[in-house]
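Support request from a user on the community tier.

User writes: "When I paste my structure tokens into the form, the page sometimes reloads and wipes my input. The last time it worked, I copied everything first. Here is what I submitted, just in case something in the input itself triggers the reload:"
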């Protein structure tokens, strides 16, 4: 997107994670502040683009598993970010055309693009909810969500690359727990979260400093901290692993290392 073509209500002077992610994925829906921040990030984390791409590939594989093997026909994608093909509904409806998908985000530019591009198959449905993950009640009570999804039936709850923006003071485990509690038995939780586990102490400190200077809330988590989100759930094989390794048998070789991806992933059934 050319910086002069800015929809009303969008602050282009401040980096936004969804637009930075778009830039790292090679998209065009980003602005100078997003690009500058992304380049600063890559100075301390040179494989940031690999990480973004592998996270997106994990999303595709997880949705494929849920639609094809688990039989999920409803998805709630929170923190969906800018549309980047293939999107959740494209993957799921390619397997089961009647699948229904609700996307949730709170960035005006995401709203503009989602309404224009996230169009459903004739048999299924998609909807967009303008809401913040910090307010699960607002998300779960939204009329558009209720019109699109039947929460008495299993749902694929997607929280991909979003909880690493929720440090402890934002009650991340309680927020996820509230969403999980609202899902019917047989639903699935799909998550990914950045980690510093593979960085040296000096590199980890530099990256934390970069986040702090940008004013961005950041919560990279250890494997144990990430696994806490799945307490009480039935984590499916291969368990908690790198996004680069999660059911990646069909991906081209050579695969990135867990250190290059630096993101943990997991999918679990809600009993």
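"...and here is what came back when it finally went through:"
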């Amino acid at each position: 997107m050319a910086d002069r073509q800015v929809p009303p209500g969008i602050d282009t002077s401040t980096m936004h994670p969804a637009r930075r992610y778009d830039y790292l994925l090679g998209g065009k829906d980003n602005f100078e502040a997003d690009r500058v921040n992304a380049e600063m990030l890559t100075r301390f984390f040179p494989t940031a683009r690999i990480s973004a791409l592998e996270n997106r590939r994990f999303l595709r594989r997880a949705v494929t598993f849920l639609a094809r093997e688990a039989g999920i026909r409803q998805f709630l994608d929170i923190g969906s970010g800018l549309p980047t093909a293939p999107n959740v509904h494209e993957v799921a409806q390619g397997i089961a055309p009647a699948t229904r998908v609700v996307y949730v985000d709170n960035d005006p530019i995401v709203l503009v693009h989602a309404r224009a591009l996230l169009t459903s198959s004739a048999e299924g449905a998609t909807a967009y909810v303008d809401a913040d993950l910090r307010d699960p009640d607002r998300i779960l009570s939204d009329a558009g969500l209720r019109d699109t999804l039947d929460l008495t039936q299993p749902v694929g709850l997607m929280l991909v690359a979003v909880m690493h923006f929720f440090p402890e003071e934002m009650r991340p485990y309680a927020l996820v727990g509230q969403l999980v509690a609202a899902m019917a038995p047989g639903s699935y939780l799909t998550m990914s979260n950045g980690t510093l586990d593979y960085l040296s102490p000096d590199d980890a400190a530099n990256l934390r400093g970069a986040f702090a200077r940008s004013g961005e809330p950041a919560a990279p988590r250890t494997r144990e901290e990430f696994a806490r989100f799945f307490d009480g759930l039935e984590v499916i094989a291969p368990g908690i692993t790198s996004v680069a390794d999660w059911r990646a048998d069909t991906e081209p070789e050579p695969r990135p290392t867990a250190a290059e991806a630096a993101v943990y992933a997991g999918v679990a059934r809600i009993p």
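Agent notes: The reload is a front-end session timeout and is unrelated to the input. The first strand starts at residue 74 and ends at 78. The chain has eleven helices and eight strands. Escalated to web team.
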